[in-house]
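As a warm-up, study this chain.
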Amino acid sequence: MNLKLFAICGVLLAVLVTQTGEAQAPKPDYKALAATGILERLAERSGVYGVPPTAKVPGFIADAGWPQKLPNNWIIGQVGGLYVAPDDHVWIYQRPRTLTSDEAALTTATHKSKDGKPVDAMGFLRPYGALGDCCLPAPSVMEFDSNGKLLRAWGGPADPDKCKAGEGCVWPATEHGIFVDHNGFVYLGGNNPNGNPNGSAWASTNGADGMILKFTKDGKFVMMIGGPGGKGPDSNNKDGGRNGTPLFYLPADITVDPATNRMYVSDGYGNRRVVIADAATGKYIGHFGAYGNNPVDDKAAAAAGDWMADFAKGNMKPAFFRNPVHCVKISKEGLIYVCDRGNNRIQVFNGRDPILGKECLNPAGEAGKCGFVKEQSVALKTNGLPGSAVSMNFSTDAKQSCLYVGDNSNMTMYVLKRDTLEELGRLGRSGRETGEFHWLHQVSIDSHGNLYTAEVDTGKRIQKFIRFGDEGCSGQQPRMLDSKIRCCLGTADAGQQKPFRAQQSPLLCSRFTSRAATSV
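Now compare it with the structure written out below.
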């Protein structure tokens, strides 16, 4: 045999043997890496800042290696939902249809468009097959362990068999909001008003998203609460959905109280309420708007315009939620926290108060009436959508003494002392690097106090922040001069509702933003 040919065969054999196994990456020299100061730089970039000497808060550092590499050449789009389940598994609800054609370059034609051109499942032209060697849209629902390893993935355009019309399931046109309850059921929402995202062919003809879907963890469909096709806001609807369940209109978030098995839905991008339903049956129990008001006056809310119209008139207590009512969370003691994103505020309700959700009027916004407890403004002067109070969660100490609040406009997370709702520090800034945020959209936490975040728009990622040091929040901000408070309020009346503590900082006063109204 020719020696040259023999050598070539040997090289080819070596290549083939290498390709049959897992490709090996160089092993890092951890001592050498530590000497570079990489950990210190990461801590400086992604840690909590602005903590006064009179307070203590948990410390955080971003885990730049989380999550692990996805299998199957998968890539994720905008992350519309994020929740850490009781077993510390991290669930995300991502939007494959927000990927661009080049991001999903490995897709091929699955059918023809109306004008006869070959397109993939998301409607992208594929006349000659794939555009490149990466990537494919991942399924919409994904479960990770705490180390970032993908455990399960199902649903959405990549896995349409999980939601069949013949079984009474309609997949949302835009994925928004996920929750895993104490019984292991997975709940999904949606917030598209017209059911036709990006011209995609899949799940695009059902009308406005007005449903909550319930599945097992393996993706077996259980039931649909509400339904698609709502024609507009109806914040007092009780039974207009499938099987006599309440019809939502672009619902944003879901939570279930393990003590009562009551489901709370922030409803949402179209309606202006929180709906209470039986998580087992989906049947209506009650609903409430701002300050616990029921019924909700949609007509008056629509006529009022956006938040800055009230702010300019000095009305710091709008009597209604403004769209979107973006999140709903439950503390250990049964307090219901609501992100009134359109009004740049948080409102708190007593979930154990029997009047909450029943017919009740509280026009003056009195604490102790209609189940209303208290409220707090967040980045008060933020102008229009995307708004400030976008998501929140509680620290893991016994008192849940910290409240972590994500801000979608100012691209940061506030660390609040939960009992007073005053700011003690911040995590993250606007940016694209590790530990920074672009359209921060969801905040969740595991049993060890590690934080997880999700981003939409062109952010399209999830991040993990590892907690160290204190588990809870203590202390307070130094008392500030009333003149600074009035400056940031934009009013001479210091007796009006005090702003969120972030407003008492000249730094934030200079950072108020004006953004176009965008549904995210």
